Amino acid sequence: MCKMKKLLGSIVSDWSRLQRQTYATSFVTPDIPVLPSTDHIARKYQGLDYDTVQRIKEAHVVPCIKSLNSKPLLINEAHMQWLYDHTGKRYLDMFAGIVTVSVGHCHPRVTEAAKSQLDKLIHCSNLFQHSAMYEYTRKLVKTLPPHLNVIYLVNSGSEANELAILLARLYTKKQDVIAFNSAYHGGTHLTQTLTALATYKYPRNNAPGIHHALMPDVYRGIWGGARCRYSPIQTKRYCECPPNQCDATNKSYEQLVNAFQYNVPITGAAALIAESIQGVAGVKEFPRYFLRKAYEMIKSTDGLFISDEVRNIVRSGTR
């Protein structure tokens, strides 16, 4: 019996020591890169205290508004690529407001222009003219192809796509619209129907006349090869397509033709809508020549092509 107790005691002692070693090993602090220095000094936080903010959010803010962290960051200030929380801690912002802060937070030129405009005029409706609106319109037109030279300014991407579908239906006198799987086009009733992602769907009736075609995805889709994209970043899939040909494009185009044949009246569709680069469902680029072929097809049936430029133009280049 004494020998048994001694043996058990030894086992327990060894196990406890192993646990302590494992615990210590699990919590070794890794080498964390040091943030580059900056001349900017954040202001002292003067807002509601952290716990009060959390109570207000819990009691009065819709629960679908989620925070990115389990312990939410309470941001006090931002400058260029840096965010500062209520304690003064600095973070490198690699999120950029869901890729909307294109030139950094509080860029001096942007804030100077905004302050100057707020001192002169905030709002008077477009029933009256104001120089700034036409200065912006002129600059915007200069970035577009010559035949795209008429601007209708709206408040959001959802509103822009609603307007585009309305104009297409009125102009063509047709109803049906084709979009692509995994597309994101907005949060209104119509644009949620155009959107083909379960995350943004609700158990309700969709807007009528909207259909979806297979999204050509050369990375994870049915067809794809090592030379499918215009991008310098290609997939590692095998490719034996001859020069100036793309098997993924041809087969994906056949699927698009089928979507029109099986879903749209013989009179054709009002429009085909596409993001030039999909982003919400993961960055997806169309294979070479596909969008041009799709554009030519919808135009050949007197429909319109709607380009929903979300990831392109100023977010990823100048055009």
From TrEMBL:
One of its GO terms (molecular function) is (R)-3-amino-2-methylpropionate-pyruvate transaminase activity. It is found in: Mitochondrion. Its EC number is 2.6.1.18, 2.6.1.40, 2.6.1.44. Pfam families: Aminotran_3 (PF00202). The keyword Zinc does not apply. It catalyses: L-ornithine + glyoxylate = 5-amino-2-oxopentanoate + glycine; N(omega),N('omega)-dimethyl-L-arginine + pyruvate = 5-(3,3'-dimethylguanidino)-2-oxopentanoate + L-alanine; (R)-3-amino-2-methylpropanoate + pyruvate = 2-methyl-3-oxopropanoate + L-alanine; N(omega),N(omega)-dimethyl-L-arginine + 2-oxobutanoate = 5-(3,3-dimethylguanidino)-2-oxopentanoate + (2S)-2-aminobutanoate. InterPro entries: Aminotrans_3 (IPR005814), PyrdxlP-dep_Trfase (IPR015424), PyrdxlP-dep_Trfase_major (IPR015421), PyrdxlP-dep_Trfase_small (IPR015422). Its cofactor is pyridoxal 5'-phosphate. It is an enzyme of class 2 (transferase). GO terms for cellular component: mitochondrion. GO terms for biological process: glyoxylate catabolic process; L-alanine catabolic process, by transamination. Keywords: Aminotransferase, Pyridoxal phosphate, Transferase. Multifunctional aminotransferase with a broad substrate specificity. Catalyzes the conversion of glyoxylate to glycine using alanine as the amino donor. Catalyzes metabolism of not L- but the D-isomer of D-beta-aminoisobutyric acid to generate 2-methyl-3-oxopropanoate and alanine. Catalyzes the transfer of the amino group from beta-alanine to pyruvate to yield L-alanine and 3-oxopropanoate. Can metabolize NG-monomethyl-L-arginine (NMMA), asymmetric NG,NG-dimethyl-L-arginine (ADMA) and symmetric NG,N'G-dimethyl-L-arginine (SDMA). Belongs to the class-III pyridoxal-phosphate-dependent aminotransferase family. Homotetramer. This is Alanine--glyoxylate aminotransferase 2, mitochondrial. It comes from Cacopsylla melanoneura.
